[in-house]
Amino acid sequence: MVAPPVRYTSPDEDSARWEGFPFRVGDIVISTRSKSGTTWMQMICALLVFQDPELPAPLAELSPWLDWLVQDRDNLFARLAAQGHRRFIKTHTPLDGVPIDDRATYIVVARHPLDAAVSLFHQGDNIDRERWHQLTGAPEPATPRRPRPSARDWLLDWIDRDDDPRTELDSLPGVMHHLFDAWSRRDRPNVLLVHYDDLSNDLAGEMHRLAMRLGIDVPASIWPSLVDAATFASMRAAADDTAPDQSGVIKDRAAFFRRGTSGAARELLTRDELARYHARVTGMAPRDLLSWLHRQDVAGD
User: Fold this and answer.
1) What is the b/e burial string over 220-247, where b = at least 16 CB atoms within 10 angstroms of the residue's CB?
2) Out of 61, 185, 267, 282, which could bridge 57 as a Cys pair, Cβ 3.0 to 4.6 Å?
3) Which homologous superfamily does the CATH classification assign to the domain defined by 9-300?
4) Cβ pair 107, 199 in contact under 8 A
């Protein structure tokens, strides 16, 4: 008997929106934690599907975020049903909260959790809170927001918090659960794990690997243009079409692509503080996953 999907909720997303989703052959589900390479993978899939660096529509229209409460579910399903191209759909839900369909391929991108957390912290300054409240219907806070702590203090608190992964998806327990669940499925033929650092270090090689796994043939003559369009610099330059928000929640779309490199947390934390992080995650995932995930820490010692 297959267990029902776990339900994940936050103020602006609900994994229950996946219930009854009509999959079709060839669907691609991109399942990532926030700031872990979601938009990057969406862009790579778009380039492989359309085989043209000039996409036919903004990326968020081609690859909608299915869990997002801002968009009407019925309208979103209708838009996806009308798409004639191979569909690639964004979700921040772990795979145990998404229907697993043999007709679809599930891609999970993993990034060093500390780097993703630092990026998430900085994204907080680029969110238009008033616009977000308008779109989600969430009430404005009764008291003024407190000044934000420094990135270092925020990160140390993030490491120590013991949040519920079902409601705090971007907490450390939430990130590690997402990755552990995907890791446990990595031998399935329709589940593919991708490391953020591999995209950074060998974008062309990873795009070739993805194309092979997805059964997509790309003429050799157009590979250079596709790889160039998938670079961080190219995506930032085209931020009006590549940033994930078309609703005005992001203040500066180019700033969404803030840095895109690894190692930011090592610049903020001391060796003892990094050791504190590693001690914390030791009980959250098996050793082989942690070694694969934290490769930059080993290389940096």
Assistant:
1) eeebeebbebbebeebbebbebbbbbbe
2) 61
3) P-loop containing nucleotide triphosphate hydrolases (3.40.50.300)
4) no
pLDDT surpassing 90 at residue 83: yes
Encode pLDDT of 105-141 as tens digits.
Answer: 999 999 999 999 998 887 755 555 555 555 566 666 6
Task: List, for residues 153-191, the tens digit of each pLDDT value.
Answer: 999 999 999 999 999 999 999 999 999 999 999 999 999
Q: Which two tokens stand for residue 257?
A: 């692509």
Q: Is 267 left (phi over 0), alpha (psi -120 to 50) or beta?
A: alpha
Residue extents of the structural domains in the chain:
9-300
Amino acid present at 2:
V
Predicted pLDDT at 238: 85
By DSSP bridging, strand 13-14 and strand 9-10 are antiparallel
Of 147, 165, 126, 144, which Cα lies nearest the Cα of 248? 126
159: closest CA among 112, 113, 111, 109?
A: 113
Catalytic residue selected from 85, 92, 208, 278:
92
Q: Is 32:193 a contact under the CB 8 Å cutoff?
A: no
Active-site residue 278, yes or no? no
pLDDT in tens, 216-226: 999 999 999 99
